[in-house]
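User: Hello, can you help with two protein structures?

Assistant: Certainly.
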Amino acid sequence: MTEVQTPDRSTATPRHSAVDVVSLDPDRHVPGVRPPGFGAVLHAEWIKLWSVRSTRWSLAMLFVLGAGLTTLICWAAADAIASGETGEAAGSFLTWGLIFSQLTALALGTLVVTSEYGTGMVRASVTAVPRRGRIVAAKALVVSGVLFVAGLVTAVAGYLGGNWFLDREGAGVALSDDGVLRALLGNGLFLAGLGLFALATGLLIRNTGAALTVGMGLVLVVGQLAYALPGTWGEWVAKLLPGNAGGSVAMIEPFTGVALAPWTGFAVFAAEIAVLLVAATLVFRRRDA
């Protein structure tokens, strides 16, 4: 009887002698794929800022409120200012419209962020630019630059218009007078700072109405009510609030006697904005869009 030999499994040739391992690289056949540089992000934020109507309307209202109301109050009260009936220095009225132009600066800074959350565009932004810190830096640079120029132009126009009426009553203020050039430049710096303040608030809150309410309430309402707080501590609280601290650099003569020195106040204001921006950037980087 013939013995049938069963092949040894250990010596049998396998059907597949080796397993091919394929390493896939999604960018291998897509040349030039890399994260966008800061210049490209900055350009994109510039386009986004000017592609919406709210930017032009906000800047137009900033000019009308800032320069227009300054000129109007100087025209209406020129004789009373010259005679001393108002009890305030003439220079105080040459930046009077700043009180109202703050509103539009806060609105513009807020809408730069919250409008993207409202439309859902923020998801496209963070997908295109994974490094979210670049988005915040680009937005901050664009907003502060635009508001600085707008604030400076508005302050100069308000000074020229208002001072024309004061000159006719003999109460004009020359550019060479103490604090005038500083206030004109400071108006641009202060509005740029308010835009950054509103931008950071918008990143933290992500809702237009809520962010505007918080920003305007803190800068315009709480800042004024704080002067009613009793004692020395109340005086210091009022001085250190963002609107009061930063606003002194944009005034030739402040209406109230309780204020930090112009550049000291602006330094405090800048430090407060820096802290708020850092906090907003950290939250933006860690939170879902």
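That covers the first. Now for the second protein you mentioned:
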Amino acid sequence: MHNYDIQHLKCFAAAVRLKSISKAAKAMFMSQQALSKRLRTLEKTLGFTLLSRETTGVSLTVEGFDFYQRAIEAIEAFDACVAHGEQIARRSPLSASLCALPLCFESFGGALSAKAMEHFQNSHMPLQFVFAELPDTLVATSVLNRTYDFGIGSYPEGDSRLQSRTLAEFSFSVLVGKNHPLSNASHLAPIQLTAFEMIVPSMESGPSGLPNFANINLDDQKISPLRITSISEEKLLEDNRAFIVKPTQNALRYLSTKNVRTIPLVDERNSPITASLDLFWRSDLSMTEAHRALKAFVERSYRGRGLKDKEAPRNH
């Protein structure tokens, strides 16, 4: 009977990957002494030395190299097994799961708040609910491959494998610095932006530079090579001739900021450019009590927020 578990293998793999026991211990959130003890236990049980320990770090022995290949395979198999188990748990009659765009959550100006989700969970025990944040490109795929039961994002038009409900219509705005040549405009059309570079917020947009679900024609737009986080947006726009396009609900966070202007984005008829935000699920999903409760919670969260609330003209 061996005297180690998967964590011993993960400690060993971390030491090999980082070429350092101290760095591996930090990566594994444990003390260097504890990680070294696990490595010694593993070596003692196996009966040979895995690592050569030197002042500059560690390296694999000949035996360690051969063992390392199998250890990686074992770790990957274990992680895949756990992930599969989590999917099975989500399909339990007592559970339901939802994946959604970042802008659906309160921290991005959305309708799903941590407090409301916690209250919903506590009031529906023993039912269990999973909420996950995903980029729009992965939401529909994750629902179709049964990783999640529901998704909030852009509905894949014409896909009969899904049913949907439109939760809201989102308008878009342009963010510019106060000294930008367009900062005094009451509204902006895409053609007015072609002379300037568009900055892409790294976590909220797709490769086109726009939110993934936005049907905005900016084919000729120059894209800035910068890929930034929301923390640096205000600072970057302050003295820059570039701009950012965001859903208005997200952009409204900047209305009280002295250095950034938030300007509605309109089409050639001066009508707001919008995109729908849809709740969708697989057509073959057998609705359990947990599924019905989760669906009702999402729909209830989007009511009364000044957003459009209508039935989608699709299958229901």
